[in-house]
UniProtKB/TrEMBL annotation:
Residues 61-192 form the BD-FAE-like domain. The keyword Membrane does not apply. Keywords: Hydrolase, Signal. It comes from the Bacteria. Gene3D superfamilies: alpha/beta hydrolase. This is Alpha/beta hydrolase. InterPro entries: AB_hydrolase_fold, BD-FAE-like_dom, GDXG_lipolytic_enzyme. It comes from Hymenobacter persicinus. SUPFAM superfamilies: alpha/beta-Hydrolases (SSF53474). It holds the Pfam family BD-FAE.
Length: 412
């Protein structure tokens, strides 16, 4: 039954991909507020998970859609709120504002709740580890939200989303979550003292298993990474906005404020050089002299910063949907049966090559070990691409794509 369920899931993904329509960016769509009103569906359940305190939490999101829109294929922006992982909710003002603004452009947007921790859990010598583990489980919840929309695209199509254009975003702590969703893609990258296996791995068990949690891009509002090296060649595009005088989350390299446990963080100003060095498409908008989340609130200053934030994100996202004024046809992904993988066996790296004459479209790939465990996730971005072995042990691995076809890789 387990194998039958997996087969049906993969079949549904394949059929959904072949049936996909187009993303139309003409007529100012995704650039101008073409829709006067937005319909908000509140408290949509997208999963459940056990908190670090041991309680089971139902995970909910609010989904924003342009009222009256009939477009069958729409991009999705999923946002996670701020609050230092101890407070905040999906209805916080910056989230409702940004979700509403982008829904008026034609996007489907969502603001999610994720697991939080009690402030009392940050009063022990293990504070840093606890906070790091909390960031991991919050990221698992974001990944479950991505899978929720990808499952909907492959089945009920209630929200009429394009599964190839799902973006992760967030503010402050939520930006940590979005950054990890986009770039922390290997269990081996997580410090051993977090005990990632005990947490359920990077994917976790928050809901909607069997669907890919990869995203098309990342929106980082005043966030940071624990390791710059998580950004690698082939990582998805990134847009960052950050106050240069942020005393809560460092703009460059530093430690967090608000009395949070000290740990080395790499803010937006430190992430950009890494992204540039490895060739990741990225945009950074520094808010010169501004503090933490300056776009928060309804004051004239807060609204002005939100206006700037909105424009920068809009201008970053639309070209990814394809060039302005064009209609982008949704092409089926190259089946891995049409891929050449060599050498086999390999020692340090393998080369992926799409068959000559095939229309190539980037797609997320998973590498599974002999037990069926996913050990790496990355994007096949170019018709010919090198995949390094890294820290993988010798043995047999299976490369799996969107169509479910698998290719064999052997490392000596």
């Amino acid at each position: 039954m387990k194998h039958l369920s997996a087969f049906l899931t993969l079949l549904a993904l394949l059929l959904a991909t072949r049936a996909s329509a187009q993303i139309d960016t003409t007529g100012g769509r995704y650039y101008k507020p073409l829709f006067a009103n937005v319909t908000v569906t509140q408290n949509v359940v997208f999963g459940s998970a056990v908190t670090l305190q041991g309680a089971t939490q139902t995970l909910r999101m609010d989904i924003y859609q342009p009222t009256g829109d009939t477009n069958p294929q729409r991009p999705v922006l999923i946002f996670a709120h701020e609050g230092a992982f101890v407070t905040g909710s999906k209805s916080d003002q910056p989230m409702t504002e940004i979700c509403t603004r982008f829904a008026r452009l034609g996007y489907v947007t969502a603001s999610i709740d994720y697991r939080l921790i009690s402030p009392l859990q940050l009063l022990t010598p293990a504070d840093t580890i606890t906070l790091g583990r909390e960031a991991i489980v919050a990221t698992q919840d974001m990944r479950a939200a991505v899978r929720f929309f990808r499952q909907d695209a492959a089945t009920a199509r209630q929200y009429r989303v394009h599964s190839g254009y799902i973006f992760a975003g967030g503010s402050s702590a939520g930006a940590f979550v979005a950054l990890q969703t986009a770039y922390l893609d290997k269990d081996s990258e997580v410090p051993a003292y977090y005990n990632i296996s005990q947490l359920g791995g990077l994917e976790g068990n928050s809901g909607n298993p069997g669907y890919v949690s990869a995203v098309r891009g990342c929106i980082n509002l005043c966030g940071a990474l624990g390791r710059r090296e998580w950004l690698e060649a082939g990582s998805v595009p990134l847009v960052s906005l950050h106050g240069t005088a942020d005393a809560t989350v460092p703009y460059g390299v530093g430690t967090p404020g608000l009395g949070l446990p000290p740990q080395r963080l790499y803010g937006s100003g430190a992430i950009k050089p890494r992204a540039d060095a490895v060739g990741v498409s990225n945009t950074l908008k520094p808010f010169k002299g501004a503090g933490h989340v300056p776009y928060n609130g309804t004051s004239a200053t807060g609204v002005a910063y939100m206006d700037t934030t909105f424009r920068v994100l809009r201008d970053f996202l639309r070209p990814i949907l394809r060039e302005p004024g064009t209609v982008t046809a949704r092409r089926a992904p190259v089946s891995l049966s049409l891929m050449q993988v060599y050498p086999v066996p390999a020692t340090e790296a393998v080369r992926l090559v799409a068959a000559a004459g095939m229309v190539f479209r980037p797609q997320p790939l998973e590498l599974l070990d002999a037990t069926g465990r996913v050990v790496r996730r990355f994007r096949w971005e170019q018709p010919e691409q090198v995949v390094s072995r890294g820290a993988l042990r010798a043995g047999l691995y299976l490369l799996r794509g969107e169509t479910g076809v698998e290719q064999r890789i052997v490392f000596e």
